[in-house]
Each structure stands twice: as C-alpha cells, then as structure tokens.
Write a structure and sequence with these properties.
The structure holds 2 protein chains of 2 kinds. Helix content of chain A is 43%, strand content 20%. Chain A has helices spanning 2-21, 42-58, 80-93, 105-119, 149-162, 176-191, 210-219, 233-243, 259-264, 282-294, 303-320, 325-328, 332-336, 348-356, and strands at 26-32, 68-74, 98-101, 122-125, 142-147, 167-173, 195-202, 223-227, 250-252, 273-277, 341-343, 361-363, 371-372, 376-377, 381-387, 390-396. In chain A, the strands form 3 sheets. In chain A, strands 2-1-3-4-5-14-13 form a 7-stranded mixed β-sheet, sandwiched between helices. A 7-stranded mixed β-sheet of chain A has the order 7-6-8-9-10-15-16, sandwiched between helices. Chain A has a two-stranded parallel sheet with strand order 11-12. In chain A, strand 15 and strand 16 (390-396) form a beta hairpin. In chain A, helix 5 packs across helix 6. Chain B is mainly α. The longest helix of chain B is centred in the N-terminal third of the chain and has 39 residues, at 2-40. In chain B, helix 11 (265-282) packs across helix 13 (312-326). Chain B is globular, with a radius of gyration of 21 Å. In chain B, 73% of the residues lie in helices and 1% in strands. Chain B has helices at residues 2-40, 47-68, 78-107, 111-133, 150-157, 167-189, 191-201, 203-208, 213-238, 243-260, 265-282, 287-293, 312-326, and strands at 146-148, 165-166. Classes of the chains: A alpha/beta, B mainly alpha. Chain A binds chain B through residues 174, 198, 200-201, 203, 205-208, 210-215, 217-220, 243-246, and chain B through 13-15, 18, 22, 137, 146, 149-151, 162, 164, 166, 235, 238-242, 244-245, 279-280, 283-289, 303, 305, 308-310, 312.
C-alpha cells in the first residue's frame, strides 16, 4: 500500500512537472454514474470513452505528441451534491481539460451549473437527455451526443399518429428524465391534435403499482406510454396494467426498450411498440466490433455516444490547436458537422492528420453524430415492436 | 342494470380486491404488533424487519425447493417453505428476547426503554436481512398466476369490464382467515392462551395465580414469529420482496394497530382493513365507476380523485391523527398510549 501511495505521489509530481513544460498527458474526466439506478450502463460507457482515448494515444496523440489520460469520477445519478463534489475534484485537483459526462440529467445539470461554467470547463454528456438542458446557462461549454427528449417527444408523437392513435395515458418515473420526457411528449402530441388523458408520475422501486394503474385506467386511453426504467418502476407499471386488464398495448421510450422487456413479459406485450436512440449507419457496426475486441459490450445503451463524446473533445482540441477549453469549445461544433471528410469510429488518426494539414472533418462516429441548436445531437431513433415475444426492429428515423 | 354491474366490476377490480388483500396483510402484521404491545407491553419497531427476515428465509428455501423440483401444483411453492421460515424466525425472535428484552424485563424497565431497545434490534435486523439476501427486489411467486383473468371473465359474463383475481390475492385472504381463526381459538379456548390473556390484563394477579411469565413470553414470541412471517410472505407473494419496502410497511401496520386499539386483536384486524380501504379508496379516481353509475348528463369530466397516489402514506397518517385526537384508545377500546 505504501509503495502504491509513493508511486502515485511520484507520478502526480511527475505529471505536474511535465504539464508545466507542455509535454505531459492531457487529462479528461470521465464522470459517469458508476453507482446508482443506472449503474449497469456505466462500465460500457466508460469503456467507450477510454477506447477513443486509447485510439488517439496509439496514433501518437494530438498537437504533436500530447497523450490523453482518463480520470474516472462517480457522478452517481440522483445525488446532485455528490456529482458536484466529484466534478470539483476532477477540475481543481486532477486538472482535467474537459469532462465526458455526466450520465443522468439531474447530475449533469448540477455539474454544469456548479463546476463547469464557473471554471470554464467543456462538458460533453453522452446520455443526459432532459429538454431542460437545452436552455441551461452554459456559456457555450456544454454539448451532448445524446438527443434531447424534446426530440423524442416529437418522435413518439409521430409514431403514435402513424398508428392512428389519438388518445393515450402517460406514466413517467418521477425524476428529471421522466418528467422532462413526459412533458415534451405531451406538448408535441397535443400540438399534433392528440389527447393525453392523464400524465401521472410513478415512484421507482415500489412493490405494488395497482393504485397508480388504477388512476391510469380510470382516465383511459388506447395506449399507455411508459416513460420509466425497465429494471424498475416501468416494468412494475406494465405488470400491474396487464394483470388488471387496464391496458394491453404500450409505447416504450428509450428507458424501457431492451431485450429484458421481452423476457419480463413473454408474449404478453405483442403489438406494443417503441423507439430508442440508435442508428443503422456503418459507424455503429464498426464501433461494436471495436468494442468487442476491447472486451466490453458496444451495443449497451449510450456506449457509442460516450466514444463519440470523447472523440469530439479530442478532435476539437486538435482543430483549435490548444487543449484550453476556452479555445476548443468553439471548434467542437465545426468538427462534428459538415463540411469536411466523414469520420467513422477507428478513423481518429486520419481525422487528426486531416486537421493537422488544415483540412476539415465531419465527425459521424459510432452514433452518426450531427450537432444541432446549442450543441446537442439531432437524434437518430430505432423504431421497434414486439412480435411473438421478440423485439423486432421496424426501421430507423 | 348492465351499467350498474359494469361500474361495480371496475370498482371491484381496482379497489375492492386489491384493498382486501392488502388489508389482510396489514391485519396480520398489526396482530403481531398488538400482541407484543398487549402482553410484553412495548411497541416493537423491529416488527417490519422481523417480517423481512422471515420472508428472506422463506424465499431462500423456496428457491431451494424449486431447484430440487419440488412444487405445490398450482399453488406457490413458498407456502411449502413457509413453516421453515417460521421456524427460523422463531429462533431469531426468541434469541433476541434472551439477548436483549429479558434483561430489561428483569429490570422492570419503562416501556419507552423497551421501545428504544427495539429500535436497536430493528437496525441490526435491517443489516442482517440485507446481508442474507441483498437489497434488490426478489420475485418468488410461481404456480398458477390467476384464479380468474380479465379475458376469461369477459368471455364468461359478456360484460364490457373485466375482473382479475390473482391466485396470490385469494391465498392471502384465505390464509389470513385461517390464521386469525386459529389465533382466536388459541387465545380463547386453550389453557396457554387464557394464561396469556390473564398476563396481559394484570401481570401481578397473573403471577400470583401461578402463571409462569417466561412461558407466556416464549409463547407470545412464537406466535408473533408465525404471524410476522406469514404476513411478510403473503405480502411478498402478492407484490414482491424488497427489504426496504418491508421497513416502510411498519408505518401502515402501526397505524392499523393503533386505529383498532393497541392490545386488542379484534381491533388490529379491523384497523388493517380500515387503513387499507381508505388508502386505496381515497387515491382511486372514481371517473369510470361514476361514468357507469351516474346518468349521462351528470357524467364527470375530471378524474374525481381525492388525492394523488403519491399521498398514500399521508392517508394512514391522517387517520392515525384523527383517531388519536378523538378516540385515543382506538376504535375497539385498546390500551391508551
């Protein structure tokens, strides 16, 4: 233990010294919810971000030989004060030049307001989808490779309209994600002429949802939209709705779409449908192969977005010719969007070379990134349905 | 006429059946609390976690049975595992009594000291249960899921509304009735039961007439272990098992015991149903029921929901307050607090 401590002190001293003369590694914070209600997604997301850094390092780094070093921090998911203090540590004590994170919308908003903006650090979240973050005060420092749920609200409304459904009930998990999505959907759906009969919250991790389902059933509707989590209250609501015969068709937003759903309700939710962020671009397949080779699951939700978040920060630094957030925050949108050569996963070395030669890149990456508005992904969705107890992909939009 | 029937069925499906099952579970829990209060004279805050411990053991034994291929036909295997869970819980509570409560009994400690001691026991059990089975949700129901499902009911009656009765709901009510009947027979007809009641009514007189107090205490704990484990397993079968939820159950269980009158077994049962029905009824939107029952011109547009479902626990608290204000001894004249 003593040796480890000594070694890390020595390493810290060395990096500190090295930083001073400009040849040391650039540190990037990877601040994800390693503990909390979405902890099962965090390892594959961190894997994605670190895979991108490893790729750049293998190609000789950026800015003539500067390497990257990932510093992990546990931003939890629901504990804003823990998220703030861990980000504070990353910025003040580790001296990171940018943060990949945070994971959940609540933690992301807290870090952005309390740490990133006061310290002028760029944050790229791979998975925070709350519409509230679109209008958050960010001084141009905040980006996300995940689409806002405002976009998902429109997608849900379109899919329902195509199925001829005009009357739905909504149950959402009582947090920033659920509330944001439910409200975005309600306004999009009503603008399109549909009716939301009830928009009610449910708490996660309860034993019994019959009272909540009773309220939903009383309000009625052709379809129940379940904006919850598949490993938690969302499945509880579906179970109670099926048991009491309140609803037999459901719409599943991104928190619910998973193979697990088919296993939870074998053959009981046939005809139900949904959509989650996803793309059929070549990048997705390339990334999955790279992830498998790297020993983690590239199909896990938001893993591809994490790779893209880290890649965008690094390419923006190369384009700006500086690792200072104040400089590269302005080039991040440029490398993400056209004009320029399209860059897929595994081509980061090529992108760095193009930027070095003064060319332009259009980073597409693992999740077909296209940043819109104040720097958030435009959003590609994978539409699915359940047939004979199996999850079937219908198409992409 | 058909409309009236449809309305009744909606009400039964969403209110009467779930509330009856929930009420039976609360009543069994409250019986345990009330027995300890009546005979050992303290409020046992460790009761929720005693339920969790018994259920955790039963869940583990159920999984063992399932692995061995033992099943109970259409009934859940957990019912076979229940006696083993009760035995383990009996050992636990008798052990706790020897280790903790007996010391205070010899000191003739004030009830409030017992209460704090039980709070300590609660925290220890809290950790123990999580250590044994973890903090996650466990589902251990197997066998036939429905006694009657919505689809079958609609096909059978031809009505527009369906009614579902889960096997676990039916089992809950049947088991609760059997257990309560057995308990009352025991308390009223057997020698041991009578000695327990005597000890409860007046400890000194009971001692003078030759009743062995340690024996009474031992039997009380055994009965409490059986009641707590049964209540816990029935709740877990009907819903799911999660240690934290059982800890939270303490509130409606105490509310039920106090509303009925602490120390009065009949009151505990009544209290359980009063709490369960009001929790479910007050948070249930009556729109669809009234839609069937009222003439078309009076049909409500709103949900007709008195309180959002988030306020469930607030309902038990309010009833508790009202009863304590106006009838401190509870509906069925128990001991006052």
């Amino acid at each position: 233990m003593k040796k480890v401590l000594l070694a890390s002190v020595a390493a810290a001293l060395m990096t500190g010294g090295a930083m001073a003369d400009g040849h040391g590694a650039i540190k990037l914070g990877v601040s994800l919810g390693f503990t909390g209600p979405l902890e099962s997604l965090a390892p594959a997301m961190a894997g994605g971000a670190e895979l991108a850094m490893g790729e750049v390092n293998a190609a000789g780094g950026i800015l003539d030989g500067k390497m990257f070093e990932a510093v992990q921090g546990d931003s939890t998911c629901i504990d804003a004060s823990a998220a703030t203090s861990v980000a504070e540590r990353l910025v003040t004590s580790d001296g990171v030049a940018g943060i990949v994170g945070a994971m959940c919308s609540g933690a992301t908003g807290a870090i952005l307001a309390n740490v990133a903006v006061p310290n002028g650090i760029v944050m790229v979240s791979p998975s925070a989808t709350s519409p509230g973050l679109t209008t958050a005060e960010d001084n141009g420092l905040f980006f996300r490779t995940a689409p806002s749920d405002a976009r998902q609200g429109v997608i849900i409304s379109e899919i329902l309209a195509e199925n001829g459904i005009t009357n739905v009930a909504v149950s959402y998990t009582n947090n920033d994600y659920g509330k944001g999505l439910a409200d975005a959907f309600e306004s999009a759906f009503e603008a399109a002429g549909g009716t939301v009969t009830i928009n009610a919250a449910h708490e996660d991790n309860k034993a019994d949802y019959s009272a909540e389902v009773g309220a939903l059933a009383a309000a009625g509707g052709e379809v129940l939209v379940v904006a919850g989590y598949v490993d938690s209250g969302g499945s509880g609501i579906v179970r109670a709705a099926l048991d009491t015969g309140a609803f037999d068709t459901f719409y599943f937003p991104d928190g619910m779409v998973s193979e697990q759903l088919g296993l939870n309700f074998p053959g009981e939710i046939d005809g139900s449908f949904g959509a989650n962020p996803g793309t059929d671009s070549n990048g997705a397949q390339l990334y999955q192969d790279m992830a498998t080779a790297g020993g983690f699951d590239g199909t896990s939700p938001f893993s591809a977005e994490s790779y893209d978040a880290a890649a965008l920060i690094m390419l923006a630094m190369q384009a700006a010719g500086s690792a200072d957030p104040a400089d590269y925050k302005d080039t991040l949108m440029d490398v993400a969007n056209a004009p320029g050569e399209v860059i897929l996963p595994g081509e980061l070395a090529k992108a760095i070379q193009i930027l070095k030669d003064g060319g332009g890149v259009d980073y597409s990456g693992a999740s077909a990134v296209e940043l819109i508005g104040p720097g958030e992904a435009g959003g590609n969705y994978r539409q699915i349905t359940f047939e004979n107890g199996e999850l079937v992909v219908v198409g992409y939009r | 006429m058909v409309d009236a029937l449809n309305g009744l069925i909606v009400l039964a499906n969403f209110v009467l059946i779930p509330a009856t099952a929930y009420g039976a579970q609360l009543a069994l829990g409250a019986l345990g609390v009330t027995l300890i209060y009546g005979i050992l004279r303290f409020s046992n805050f460790a009761h929720g976690d005693t339920m969790a411990f018994g259920t955790a053991i039963t869940v583990l034994v159920t999984w063992g049975f399932q692995a061995l291929g033992i099943s109970f036909g259409p009934l859940p295997t957990a019912l076979l595992a229940l006696p083993i869970g009760i035995a383990a819980t009996s050992l636990l509570v008798v052990g706790t009594d020897r280790a903790v409560y007996r010391f205070y009994r010899k000191q003739r400690a004030a009830p409030v000291i017992y209460l704090i001691a039980s709070l300590g026991v609660m925290f220890v059990l809290n950790g123990l249960v999580r250590f044994i089975i973890g903090t996650d949700d466990q589902r251990f129901t197997d066998g036939e899921r429905f006694l009657i499902s919505v689809r079958e009911f609609k096909a059978m009656t031809g009505l527009a509304e369906g009614l579902a009765i889960r096997t676990t709901q039916a089992i809950t009510v049947v088991v609760a009735v059997l257990v309560v009947a057995a308990l009352f027979w025991f308390l009223n007809r057997t020698r041991t039961g009578k000695s327990m009641r005597a000890y409860s009514d007046n400890e000194d007189l009971a001692l003078l007439s030759g009743i062995n107090p340690e024996r009474v205490v031992l039997y009380t704990w055994l009965i409490v272990a059986a009641l707590a484990t049964t209540a816990g397993v029935l709740y877990g079968l009907d819903k799911s098992f999660k240690p934290f939820v059982y800890f939270q159950l303490l509130l409606p269980i105490f509310a039920a015991a106090i509303v009925g009158g602490l120390g009065n077994p009949l009151g505990a049962i009544a209290g359980g149903f009063v709490i369960a029905y009001s929790e479910v009824l007050i948070t249930y939107p009556m729109k669809r029921v009234l839609g069937y029952w009222m003439p078309e011109s009076l049909e409500p547009d709103g949900l007709v929901q008195l309180l959002s479902t988030d306020y469930k626990f607030a309902v038990s608290f309010s009833i508790l307050l009202i009863v304590l204000l106006f009838r401190p001894t509870g509906l069925f004249k128990g001991k006052s607090l």
